[in-house]
Every structure is written in structure tokens, then in C-alpha cells.
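User: I've been trying to design a sequence by hand for this structure and keep getting stuck. Would you show me what you'd pick, starting by listing the structure so we're on the same page?

Assistant: Good idea, let's start from the same input. This is the structure you sent:
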């Protein structure tokens, strides 16, 4: 959950979108206030946003931007009421998320343990993205989040394409072996005095190709 003091935007976002784990410059300046929340369903996240909106307004009202010479930029400074509002937001989040509807995050390797019927070696990148998006939309209503679905489908398609390449290699090997056997048989028949026209008819070639 984050509140941007510059544009007054309050929103629930995924952690990989805002860079938890390394501090964004706007976070170190205090401009972007953040609170950790679990992976809530869309309905639960909207309810939480609605619940903390009044507190966010208090925080915004008590925040001022002051110059920081050492940084060469403005930093956010909160008055006492804004600090209390920020603390209360954290308390509301902790209380609400204890019983909130959570999204069940499922690794795509587990979800796509069997290759979907519509995925083949001939599936294009665009079609692959459409398959992943359609499945994600289908399960969203059940509060399920598929992690790295597109990457998993691409890996499965790569395996299917590898099998096609392996099949081609096997067919080529068989073709070369059959070609050697055919040529040996042609030589045997020619040694018996069979005409090239007769041999060609058996082989399915023009007699000039024998």
C-alpha cells in the first residue's frame, strides 16, 4: 500500500512494481509512504483503500515539502497529526488484513503441470500471451494469482518444439538408412541384368535417375 504525497495518490500495488527491497528515491525523501500488506483480492484491497482514505487525507494535510541542501531536493516533513494518521493507517492495515480475503498465489509450474490443450509447438508468441491472459482472468474471480504463467507456457512450448526437432532428426536418420538400403537394392537388381527402366519403375524415379 502506498501514498504519494506529491500527487495524493493512494493505491495498493504489487511489491515488484514499486521495488521493495531497494529504497526508491521518493521513499528515502519521505514523499512516497508505504505499508506492507498481504496479497489481497481486488475486492478486499478496494475495501481497505476506502477504509484508510480519511486517514490518508489527514496525512496529506499535515505534510509539507522542505528543501534538503544535502540532497539537493525536497523532503517530506509531517506534523504531529500527520504522524498519528500514518501510524493509524498501519494499525488499520494490520487489523483489516488479519481476516481479509487473500489472493492464493500459485506458481505456474504447479498450475500448468499439464500442457494446456490449446498450446502446441506452432503456438505464436501472441497466441501464447492470449492463453496466459485468458487463464489469469478466468481464475481471478476465485482470488487466484498465477505467478509467471506466460514464462511457464513458453517453456512448455519450447519443449514441444524440441520434440518436433528430435522427430525431424529421427526421420532424417531413417530416411538416410532407407536411402542406403534402396541404393544397395538397386545395385543388386542392376547386377542381375534388370534394365534401368524396370528398376526406375520400382523405385518411382525416371530411368535416367537410376
Amino acid at each position: 500500500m502506498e501514498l504519494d504525497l506529491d500527487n495524493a495518490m493512494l493505491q495498493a500495488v504489487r511489491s515488484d512494481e514499486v521495488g521493495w527491497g531497494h529504497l526508491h528515491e521518493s521513499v528515502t525523501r519521505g514523499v512516497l509512504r508505504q505499508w506492507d500488506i498481504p496479497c489481497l483480492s481486488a475486492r478486499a484491497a478496494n475495501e481497505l483503500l476506502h477504509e484508510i482514505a480519511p486517514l490518508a487525507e489527514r496525512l496529506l494535510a499535515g505534510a509539507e515539502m522542505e528543501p534538503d541542501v544535502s540532497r539537493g531536493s525536497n523532503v517530506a516533513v509531517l506534523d504531529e497529526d500527520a504522524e498519528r494518521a500514518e501510524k493509524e493507517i498501519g494499525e488499520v492495515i494490520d487489523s483489516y488484513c488479519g481476516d481479509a480475503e487473500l489472493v492464493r498465489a500459485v506458481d505456474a509450474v504447479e498450475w500448468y503441470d499439464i500442457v494446456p490443450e490449446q498450446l502446441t509447438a506452432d503456438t505464436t508468441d501472441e497466441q501464447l500471451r492470449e492463453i496466459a491472459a485468458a487463464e489469469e482472468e478466468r481464475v481471478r474471480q476465485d482470488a487466484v494469482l498465477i505467478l509467471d504463467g506466460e514464462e511457464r507456457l513458453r517453456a512448455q512450448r519450447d519443449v514441444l518444439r524440441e520434440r518436433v526437432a528430435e522427430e525431424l532428426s529421427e526421420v532424417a536418420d531413417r530416411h538416410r538408412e532407407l536411402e542406403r538400403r534402396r541404393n544397395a537394392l538397386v545395385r543388386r537388381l542392376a547386377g542381375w541384368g534388370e534394365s534401368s527402366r524396370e528398376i526406375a519403375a520400382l523405385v518411382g524415379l525416371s530411368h535416367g535417375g537410376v
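That's my pick for every position. To get oriented when you compare it with your attempt: The two ends are 78 Å apart (CA to CA). The first strand starts at residue 2 and ends at 4.
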